[in-house]
Amino acid sequence: MDERWMADPVECGTAAGFGIYVHIPFCAHRCGYCDFATYDDQHDWIPRYVAALRAEIARAGGSDRPVTSIFIGGGTPTLLPAHHLAGVVDLLHATFAVEVGAEVTVECNPETASVELFERLAASGVNRVSMGAQSFAAEVLKTLERQHTAERPLEAVAQARQGGIDQVSLDLIYGTPGETNDDWEATLRQAVIAEVDHVSAYALTIHDNTPFGRRVSQGTLARPDDDVQADRFDTARDLLGAAGFEHYEISNWAMGSRARSRHNVLYWRHGDYLAFGVGAHGHRDGQRWWNPRAIAPYVTAVEERRDPASGSEVLTPDERAEERLLLGLRLREGLHPVDVPPIDPLALEDAIAHDLVQTSSGRLQSTEGGWFLLDEAIRRLT
User: Fold this and answer.
1) Which helix (H) or strand (E) holds 172?
2) Which residue ranges make up each domain of the chain?
3) pTM (global) more than 0.85
């Protein structure tokens, strides 16, 4: 296999940058649809967890590569006291060679926002906030078990601006049972009114191991309708596009290339990133590792000066090739010719014939329809 796509990439792999992900698992309330490593009943762990997180970061030491993006997710990172959260950001800057101008994102729920919080985070180098609005319709928020009012996200965005945060993104969910067309259109229009730099919009997914999953199996909650969600997506594409947002990835829109989520683009370009905290996953040079999802074993391992990782794997060249395609084709511009792994010409011809992919100036890209049939496109290409 020609391995130039791995050894000497142009945009992907080692050329995509180098990131750090930090996970804060605490929430005031764990929403019924959430499948992440989050906890709403273990806040007494916060001091020990932060101490363990800082120890894990410090022991990782520096890196031979400059850090181009940091993402602190959860959970609700802004549920931590501001000095704890800013202290973690300060430690990352002190420990690693974080590039000047690197993207530093913190996830925030609207009910935890304040000007003082954002001022403290901005002083530590945070320049981007991802705000979990999910919806601007009161009944939809109630179904999703969100803890903020329909008006609160707009106030929180304004507070982030006032606190010195350069870029603000809104996270939205569509296709919630009971959501109407008018609800979704009003949510999108509010996102436009908020004058944010970026919007992420995801179809509600029900996982079997969540309270929503159990309610669906019991017949007390309707399963999201695929056709309705497809219509909601089309509405988002039309309305956000008309407002000037660039639809650069299946679920993401940005006000120009500068407002793209650099950290998420790093993921989609198959880049490398370190990971710290409960449930965090890291990747480097085809090796993936992950920490336990439960707080107690993670904290205990760090306190006992053991590697907290609970598992790892080394991907084969074929597995890396499949991931490169699956991730890279999520981006509208697809993959640079040098970054495309070897594909059998007949397989490529077949995928093109089924209108799943196309080539433009040598780049391999998903077609408009193929964007939503990526699994089928990858099956045919590989």
Assistant:
1) strand 167-174
2) 4-268, 316-382
3) yes
4-268 CATH pick, 2.60.40.10, 3.20.20.70, 1.20.1600.10, 3.90.180.10: 3.20.20.70
Half-sphere exposure of 60 (CA within 13 A, CB side): 25
Q: Measure the CA–CA gap between 15 and 374, rounded to whole angstroms.
A: 24
- What whole-number distance in Å separates Cα of residue 29 and Cα of residue 357? 42
**DSSP assignment of 85-154:** HHHHHHHHHHHS-EEEEEEEEEEE-GGG--HHHHHHHHHTT--EEEEEEE-S-HHHHHHHT-SS-SSHHH
Could you tell me the two tokens for 123?
A: 């002083």
| Chain length of the chain | 382
CA distance 190 to 165: 20
**168-210 pLDDT, tens per residue?**
999 999 999 999 999 999 999 999 999 999 999 999 999 999 9
DSSP helix/strand/coil, 306: coil
Per residue in 244-258, is it b (16+ CB within 10 Å) or e — as a string? ebbbbbbbbbbbeee
What's the token pair of residue 381?
């290409």
